[in-house]
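Researcher: Good morning. I'm working through a list of sequences from a screen, and I'd like to move beyond sequence-only analysis. For each chain I'm collecting a predicted structure so we can compare shapes side by side. This is the next one on the list. No need for commentary yet; just the structure.
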Amino acid sequence: MRIESIFQNLEYLEEVANLTEKEWGHWSSREEYQEKVEKKKRKILAAQGMRDYEKLLLLEGNTLIGFVSLFPHDGEERLDLAPWYATMYIKKEYRGKGYSKLLKDALLKEAKKRGFQKVYLKTTLKNYYEKMGAIYMEQLLTGEKLYYFNLEESRSN
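Model: Good morning. Structure tokens for this chain:
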């Protein structure tokens, strides 16, 4: 089992874009779906080398297990905060095995290496990220809760 950047594993770009669109996207036709997948692929490729963007893949052999992202922004609610922990995804058949914690730890380590002191996230999940060390900030107008991970503390939750 290994965690690597998508930029060193572009053979997974199509699969990641499809999984992302299926999980969080909205479309009304197959054509619109495919356009959005292509747009996601272009957006990922264009972000290569950005300090506040990364997409880490959890791989076992040649199988993609899941992924997580560091984004400059995640929505329009709090553009004053950056970067964001986003798109945590574990394939259904691999859930409940602690893989999201592995990805979270790797992404926070990468963010700290890039010089960030905090990483923000928003979620509707209850008591999921708190167990991983996220600190509650506020409720957003969208109904989501806003949290952050403090990278200055050495938590290993």
